[in-house]
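Hi there,

I know you've been waiting on this one. I reran it after we fixed the sequence typo, so this is the corrected version. Both the input and the resulting structure follow.
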Amino acid sequence: MATRIGIVGLGQIARKQHVPTILADANFTLAGLADLAGGEPIAGLPIHNDHQAMLAACALDAVAICTPPAARFANARDALLAGKHVLLEKPPAATMGEAEALVELAARCGRVVYASWHSQCNHAVEAARLFLANKHLARLRVDWHEDFRVYHPDQDWIWQADGLGVFDMAINALSVISRLFTPPPFVRSAELYIAENHAAPLAAKIRFGALDSAGPLELQANWGHVGPAQRELHMITRCGHDVVLLDSGGTLVIDGKVTVQEVRAEYPMLYARFAELLRRGESEADLTPLQMTLDALALGKRVALLRFEG
């Protein structure tokens, strides 16, 4: 029987990714919608003005939480306490304390919580992980540049401190790093470029450390980028292999040879994983990308930028 799932938060990602993915997945039935802004029905379903009304009105098995990070904890807590399984859009919460509390609450309630990272859901990422197993890094360079106007037009919450700024998208790169390496690199220092009218950074540079590497490991991210997005990871192993992930994890190149190249299907893979976790009754919560983000924000040197208008 298909899992009856509702969505809380109907921003651009929910409308463009979650809704069509759920509608196309036989494992799920879209059965409820909630958003503070309300709006016209989607797929014939009315939009409730708050998540509590949706929980009360719809017979749901699970809820996907797609609200801004500041609201995510309360939305997920209420769903778990109402006996629903929970899928969390990235990041899983605004703080590590909130994220860890949700994992604990899900265990207490006997419910599944899935802290989803869509950028991990690529065959090229998994192939790279398998290739890099038991190999040590000599160098890592990540370039993750996007235009926030494409993904969050007119959404001021992203520039508030709990909106994470550039890390709302750069955390996707961190999630790939977290997936590729065990143990993953850790943040040693960072530079945060913050416009005078923002509380969260527009751009960032992170330098990593690692237990098994002394080479340069760094990430550069810019959310004020103009033009086609650049999402690339370049890795060199100590044994001399050159490993490159391009197209946000859609293409893998090893030693100059393309080994995986495909049209990305991140959200279908993400929901397939959620369906598998529900069948097993198991939670999955990789909190490392959130920890990296918060470490960078805590350690980062603030570099002032002029006023920036989106």
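Quick highlight: The two ends are 45 Å apart (CA to CA).

Best,
R. S.
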